[in-house]
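Record type: monomer structure entry
Structure origin: computed from sequence
Chain ID: A
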Amino acid sequence: MSEKSFLSSKLLFYTITISTLLFIISSLFFLQRNESSFTSNLVHKLRTEEVKQTHVSSCNRNQDVLKVFMYDLPSEFHFGLLGSKIWPNVKNISSIPSYPGGLNRQHSVEYWLTLDLLASEISGIKRPCNVVRVKNSVEADVVFVPFFSSLSYNRKSKLRGNETISVDRLLQERLVEFLKIQEEWKRFDGRDHLIVAHHPNSLLYARNSLGSAMFVLSDFGRYTSAVANVEKDIIAPYLHVVKTVACNESASFDMRHVLAYFQGAIYRKDGGTIRQELYNLLKDEKDVHFAFGTVKGNGTKQTGKGMASSKFCLNIAGDTPSSNRLFDSIVSHCVPVIISDHIELPFEDTLDYSGFSVFVHSSEAVKKGFLVNLLRGVSEDQWKKKLERLKEVVECFEYQFPSRPGDSVDMIWSAVSHKLSSLQLNVHRKNRYRRSETYDRNRSS
């Protein structure tokens, strides 16, 4: 072989080798950019946003962010229920009144949203730039009503002393009276107002009068469809009461000797009667824990420990379609088994719950042997996939201050943003003939 031919062959070999390596690298990059898991893409996006947003000291109001006007209501409607007569200085976290513990905490949604709005005005607080408070209601996309309705129900709904009407009811009546005379309410009949009523019994007397507003609820169990519905309202998660399990401390499949776990009230009314039926079916199954329990004593800690050592956690309809148990199981890394036909789930327009949960129709669950056979039939690999997805979305069910990208507060504001298009559609439809009618009246006069 001539020297010229040898050099040409050598050059061709190097060219092919380099081209092959470049092809492999570009393929790997393409695969990484196109992950098949929607949840993985969501988490990747949230983590990217976290790097970008948590280092922002103040939000630019000219950015494409949700603009919220918040009424300056007297303290008795909000932090006065926590013993403070003034708005807290959120720059000094130690000065913020803490929310009551126990089961009160599970419905504390309005507390976290209010704090986040207050923080949006303060430079130096690291939080997502997804929402800002504006002082001019004309600029606002949404009008926020800072009424701690769940806390008012929990603390002020019972008659005391010589009272003939509860403080909770009086606050609701005063709120309705206040809102109905506001220009902000009159502008769109309250459709752009955001009111949190997370406890199923909160805002009991005012909900019909304020039903045109956008509610933040735990479910629709105690509302008529005319007052609350999925088209205009938002479902928010309960604040979990058990401790969050760290991802690196999550027990393996083999270490979880309990197949299915349930601890709580067994005898319920309405749709919750299924709990008693399931108790009778499952109480003698050797690998199922199905027992009565409360938060009293060491109950919460025991429940968290039991969930964290179980493969599946049963989330069964009670007096209402939802319960805090679902969110306790998620942060315990216990794959939820949702047996509640009428449940509405938080952020389901973003999260695919089937990726980290098991859904069972109530009619199927009460068939003898069906539920345990279904769960025993889930392979270790299938269970592990659900667990990994569950770990990825845990942050979506955490309330905290300051808020963080992808946590419950951030997700609620995103859900509000998603509702704006349908809100604007309804407003525009209502306004179709308003200008024409005004023109006719002016011409006739």
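Annotation 1: The chain has two domains: 51-238+401-428, 247-397.
Annotation 2: The chain has a mean pLDDT of 86.
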